[in-house]
């Protein structure tokens, strides 16, 4: 029975940021007169929005640990191989950006705030990431899938060298490539 109460209380702690449910744990355990001074300070101080509270309970004490929600990395930063790719927008403005090898051109555009829509999120269900390649670069690209061809039929300014950005992954030999973003008709 007590285990059930503590399990239910743990769920309350995670959902209510700890303050109300700490009192619930103390009353469920019984008369627990030893309260940690740090716990009292945390109950009185407002909880910052960017902090996460993790609470561990046992039958005799309540321990609260506050941790900052940050992403953990190894001590050395990973080095991703990149190449420079130039996107030529419909107004003929060039945007040269670093492109991580292996990423789709749609993701590279989004990572660098290039205006390339990608309404379906790269799921091959639209033609809003339509790009136009030079003939030399187009000849080095992988074969189009029939589904990509079907989606390209919906694209504005379709050419013989048109492809969908979500289907083209960056390769090392694309260093210095220029790809044109067609006018979407709006």
Detailed description of the structure:
Strand 3 (82-88) and strand 4 form a beta hairpin. The chain is 27% helix and 20% strand. The chain is built from six helices and seven strands; from the N terminus they run αααββββαβααββ. The strands form three sheets. It has a three-stranded mixed β-sheet with strand order 4-3-7, with helices on one face. The chain has a two-stranded antiparallel sheet with strand order 1-2. With 186 residues, it is of the alpha+beta class. The model is unreliable at 1-37, 39-58 and 65-76 (pLDDT under 50).
How many distinct helices? 6
Q: What is the alpha-carbon Rg in Å? A: 27 Å
Strand content: 15-25%
Oligomer: single chain
Shape: globular
Roughly how much helix do the residues carry, as a percent range? 25-40%
List segments where confidence is low: pLDDT < 50 over at least 5 consecutive residues: 1-37, 39-58, 65-76
Q: What is the straight-line distance between the termini?
A: 65 Å
- Could you tell me the number of beta strands? 7
- Mean pLDDT over all positions: 74
Listing every helix as H and every strand as E from the N terminus to the C terminus, the arrangement reads HHHEEEEHEHHEE
Structural class: alpha+beta
């Amino acid at each position: 029975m007590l285990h059930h109460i503590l399990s239910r209380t743990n769920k309350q702690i995670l959902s209510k940021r700890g303050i109300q449910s700490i009192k619930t744990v103390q009353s469920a355990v019984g008369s627990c007169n030893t309260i940690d001074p740090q716990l009292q300070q945390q109950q009185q101080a407002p909880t910052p929005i960017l902090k996460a509270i993790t609470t561990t309970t046992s039958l005799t004490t309540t321990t609260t640990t506050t941790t900052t929600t940050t992403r953990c990395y190894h001590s050395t930063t990973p080095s991703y191989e990149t190449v420079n790719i130039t996107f030529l927008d419909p107004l003929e403005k060039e945007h040269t950006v670093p492109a991580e090898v292996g990423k789709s051109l749609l993701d590279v555009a989004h990572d660098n705030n290039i205006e390339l829509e990608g309404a379906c999120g790269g799921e091959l269900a639209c033609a809003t990431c339509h790009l136009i390649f030079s003939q030399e670069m187009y000849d080095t690209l992988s074969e189009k899938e029939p589904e990509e061809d079907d989606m390209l039929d919906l694209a504005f300014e379709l050419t013989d060298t048109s492809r969908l950005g979500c289907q083209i992954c960056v390769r090392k030999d694309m260093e210095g490539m220029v790809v044109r973003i067609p006018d979407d008709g709006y």
